[in-house]
Amino acid sequence: MSGLVYHYPDGNHALNGVSFEIAAGESVALIGPNGAGKSTLLLHLNGLLPDRRSSAGSHHHHGAGWSGRKGRGPASVWIDGLEVDARNAVEVRRRVGLLFQDPDDQLFSASVIEDVAFGPLNLGMDKAEARRLAIACLERVDLVAAADRPPHHLSFGERKRVCLAGVLACGPSVLALDEPTANLDPRGRRRFIQLISGLASTKLIATHDLEMVLDVCSRTILLDGGAVVADGPSRAILADAPLLEAHGLETPLSLLIPRSAADQRAASPD
Amino acid sequence: MESDGVERRSVGGLLHRLDARVKLLAAVAFVVAVVATPLGAWRLLGGLGLALAVLIAVSGASPIRLFLRWLGFLALVGFLSALTAGGLADRAHMSWGLVVLNLLVKNSLAFLMMLVLVHVTTWPQLLLAMRRLGMPPVLAATLSFMDRYVNVLREELERMRSARRARWFRQGRDLSVGALSTLIGVLLLRALEREERVHAAMSARGWDGTIRTLED
After folding, report:
1. How far apart are CA A152 and CA A157, in angstroms?
2. Residues in A 249-268 with any Cβ partner in B closer than 8 A
3. A48-65 confidence digits (pLDDT tens)
4. Average pLDDT, rounded, for chain A
5. Is the Cβ of A130 closer than 8 Å to some Cβ of chain B?
6. Distance from first CA to last CA of chain A, Å, rounded?
């Protein structure tokens, strides 16, 4: 991702030249205060916001590569060497699995199984195959029993897991997760973190849950005002109290506990 | 899908297990028959009513709940019949009151029939039946979305109402007509925003405008 610029139609600058690269298999946390541009950035991974940029009308194509200054350059995002644009949209969307924050936005079908099969069917799979895949994905999130239920009869945590199954069913190589642990109760949160950790794909996780970041992500990108403020190993960034406070965040408690206590905690079973 | 909900809703009725297409067609045929009954054909209406009563008994639907729903619908139907009865009364050489009564009875029979249909058929079954009977996929998808999000929107409205009530420190009704219309306006805006997110979520999973489902 390089020199990403994005304006909302009302002229608000959501992203001002965001550049970073993520290697395959990496787990990266995207942190920052509300309104920093995290969710907007995730939508860009999927090419879901391109037409608005052109309708803003103030940008011209300057070729790919670094531009990084506001008002310059195209919003350039590459996934596996593919540039995210209208031409590649289908392939890019197959490779990037986007998990939305509110499961009700993502679960639009009449039954759970229909919803999980939605992606595979759109990818051209036949019905029997799509059904098998959907059931396999529901097994991964432990919700096969709910296959025929309507989504609004499920709990929030269950709906969230169905969403994940629906994303996994598309077989993405990159997972973009928007606040995966928000609004979950502690048990649901722990379960969801376990699920995420068990996935081999590249992960970009936008979140306020910094404890989860320590568990899941080796690298952290701090975003504020639509720009990258810091980018580095999670432990280093999350231990930098002045930096976090300057951007509306705070150091996770587990990093404040003295080393020995933290070790003890790690040694005791969860 | 065929068996979906049978365990959940069945009270042992044969009607629940019948193919949804048969039920739908039969119900529509019944409604057409009721509507086609000429004014003043009380015996025919009585016969149809009797058939419906038997059907209600077999279906295991609670007559009280059916009655309450019918009552809720009555105000609108009564108003409309009263408005239209004038012209019809002259042509049919019947008194105005009898025409209104006739219209009300016909309407009630049709309405109750539909209530019985949705009692013995789950919504997904009904939707599937409509699709199999040739309803355009876009219309079927729209109905499916409606069912999915009407609950979500109702919860949203309920939350907004509670939030309002929590800061309403006076006696009496908490929602004036003006306040309600504001609330509905806000709900509409929120629905629009949700629609954008849902569309993004659909596109993210490869939606290209064609509706594909596991069933058809």
Report:
1. 12
2. none
3. 775 444 333 333 222 233
4. 81
5. yes
6. 37
Find out whether A128 and A78 touch, Cβ atoms under 8 Å: no
Task: Give counts: helices (H), strands (E), chain A.
Answer: 13, 10
In chain B, domain spans: 14-127, 136-204
**Banded pLDDT at A12 (limits 50, 70, 90):** low
A162 touches chain B (CB under 8 A): no
For residue A98 the two structure tokens come to 């986007």
CA distances from B127 to A81, A171, B132, B133, B157 (A): 43, 30, 9, 10, 26
Best residue in A52, A94, A118 for a mutation probing chain B (most B CBs within 10 Å): A118
How many CB pairs lie under 8 A apart between chains A and B?
87
Which residue among A105, A110, A134 sits closest to B127, beta carbon to beta carbon? A110
Tell me the residues of chain A between 177 and 196 that have a Cβ less than 8 Å away from chain B: none
Q: Which residues of B touch A148 (CB under 8 A)?
A: 1, 4
Please tell me the predicted confidence (pLDDT) of residue B33: 92
Per-range mean pLDDT, top range of A49-53, A91-95, A131-135, B157-161: A131-135
Beta bridge partners of A83: A78
| Residues A107, A112, A118: CA angle, nearest 5 degrees | 65
Beta bridge partners of A50: none
- What number of residues does chain A have? 270
Q: Rounded to whole angstroms, how far apart are CA atoms B15 and A240?
A: 68
What pLDDT does A259 receive? 61
Task: Round to whole Å and give the CA distance between A2 and A25.
Answer: 19
pLDDT of residue B40: 77
